[in-house]
Amino acid sequence: MVNVSTVKKPNLTKEKKEVSVKKAKDVSINYDKINHMDSFNKFVRKKNAFLFGTTGIFLFLYILLPILAFTPVLQQKWIGNITGVWVYSAGLFVMTVVLCALYTKMAPKFDQIAADVLREYEQGGAE
Amino acid sequence: MNLVTVIFFLGIVGLTLVVTYVAAKRTSSASDFYTAGGGLKGWQNGLAIAGDYLSAAAFLGVSGAIALTGFDGFFFSVGYVVANLVLLYIIAEPMRNLGRYTLADMLTARFTEKRIRGIAATSTITIVILYMIAQLVGAGALIKLLFGIDYWLAVIIVGVMMTTYVLFGGMTATSWVQIIKACLLLFGTTILAFLVFWKFDFSLMKMFDTISTQHGDQFLVPGIKYTSMIDSVSMMMALVLGTSGLPHILMRFFTVKDAKTARTSISWTTWITAIFFSLTIFLGFGAMHFVGIDVIKAENAAGNTAAPLLAEYLGGNILLSFVAAVAFATILAVVSGLVLTGASAISHDIYGEIIKDGKLTEKQQVLAARIGSISIAVISIILALFAQSLNVSFLVSFAFCIGASANLPVILYTIYWKRFNSNGVIAAMATGLISCLVLGALGPNVWSPVEGAAIFVGDPLVPLSVPAIITIPLGFIAGYLGTVLTSNKAEDAEKIYNEIRVKANTGVAVSEVSHH
After folding, report:
1. Neighbour-count burial for B179-199, b at 16+ CB within 10 Å, e otherwise
2. What is the ipTM for the molecules in this complex?
3. A125 CA to chain B: closest CA distance, Å?
């Protein structure tokens, strides 16, 4: 995600300077302040809703497999001799790569919002 | 053992030793040793994590299980693949943002007490030892089968190799051994699956028709091995949630520079495991049809040699030798990762941070890490030599169970629950750990009325082979009650949680890459 260095833009060509910036930043970040910013809380709520919402859905679909696998629903032959359990499992494989792709698509957007939050904190100020 | 086998075998040993030699030159600090300096690229770490997943249990065990029991064996494949999503969505990035070398580091970022580090290290060491015994015993038996050397000698060979990689090359060597092995394994599996699919005229319908008509419809649905729905649900819960609590997997997120790279890693792992575990269908059905269930069982009752036997049928001696060598590399890579993880808990958590208060110089830390590696290797080898005659492959499921019941609740609460306190950590971890071990020890893997089927003769008190369906809720409840029933609140608890929350969500102030 976002590193403060991208916000503070240390001069990478001068190592000594970078070290001093690094040292300074650990002391200077006011976590309480960021934690109480509206934009930060809005961001965390939005992100967690997406993460836990999706996790809930895929865990539910996943655990249905060992439940339905012992019922006639998935034990029937669906396509030729291929039974429902195999088709459902294939569906879970597809779900996994699709949700993985979805996450990799969403994550940079969250990175961007996180960067904005940190920039707002920076501009909002020195204490 | 013939010439081709020896050549492949020596090729693997030679290649991994070269990697270790190169890695050793780059391993000077504790950060190099435990996390490869945090300098791995996303695809490298992704392959290495895939390497951790694709253990001998996954490659030989799953293909063998499908060959003997049909769909029952494929349950594992689904579990391993979906487990990636749990890691990706809720664990990988906050883990990277908060931790340094170990799970305990991540927890003590919030709860600074030594007892927290102590219990996290205990859980890590327990998981590592259980997992390692299962791998070493399996390795010994497998090498005995494939190369015809004695069990004790096989265990010693594997033990010496794994110690060498870790001792000299630390995490860099361990990671590259994993990467090499993951590529070889994927290559070998693809060839086998391709040849099987060819024999079925590249038609899935024909493959399923053949299994159905010549072997029976019972292989196309669960029920040969798993007859109980509750038991299967319990096992599947352990697989999908336990992966996110396995310390040797979690440690891999510290080998990359930031959360973004941690995310890329898991993305790679997801694709690789999805492809690999899809191919296990072809390996399993291929072995069932072309080698035959009776032949497989005659060679190894658990079906562990189904894949090598299939290779021999499809490609003769050369393919058999290649697959055997890949299986050997797989074993070496996985046990090396375990040694390193065990060493991190012993040397960094217990010795460095608890006993020495974190006041070790860089040199002392590396020395401690090396001594820790040797200790954990020696303990495991001795235990594996004693466990030779026991069927211990179920110990891996115990490890997943502890990961899901002791580690996962604590990780989630630490990141996401403001009120969580250190008593909650102790309660959740102790409950998860003890309940898994006790309920597991009373289960059908240890007790069976049939003599020789398990370690002891008698009726199991707990009818679940993996007690995760009971122990996971217990772990979460214990963490909750331990927190709300005590008023143990450090003065600056809120301040620390604010910091954790900001760091976990923004990645601010993540330590920089040391070098490379």
Report:
1. bbbbbbbbebbebbbebbbeb
2. 0.90
3. 16
Q: Is the pLDDT of residue A92 over 90?
A: yes
Strands B447-448 and A82-83: unpaired
Inform me whether the C-beta atom of residue B69 falls under 8 Å from chain A C-beta atoms: no
Substitution target in A29, A37, A70 with the highest count of B β-carbons within 10 Å is A70
Q: Can you spell out the DSSP letters for B98-128?
A: H-SSSHHHHHHTT---HHHHHHHHHHHHHHH
The Cα B107–Cα B95 span in angstroms is 10
The neighbour count for residue B397, using CB atoms within 10 Å, is 26
Tokens for B12? Answer: 């693997």
| Structure tokens, A120 | 């707002």
**Cβ–Cβ under 8 Å, residues B488 and B12:** no
In one-letter notation, the amino acid at residue A60 is F
> How many Cβ atoms from other residues are within 10 Å of residue B97's Cβ?
25
Residue B338: Cβ within 10 Å count: 30
DSSP-assigned letter for residue B465: S
Mean pLDDT within A60-64:
96
Residue A17 has a pLDDT of 38
Looking at the partner chain, which of A4, A25, A99 has a beta carbon nearest the beta carbon of B85? A99
H-type alpha helices, B287-402: 293-299, 306-343, 362-386, 395-402
Q: A14: how many CB neighbours lie within 10 A of its CB?
A: 11
pLDDT value at residue A1 = 44
Backbone angles phi, psi at A77, to 5 degrees: -80, 125
Q: What digits encode the pLDDT tens for the residues B409-441?
A: 999 999 999 899 999 999 999 999 999 999 998
Taking CA–CA distances from A4, the nearest residue in chain B reads B508
Q: pTM for the full model? A: 0.89
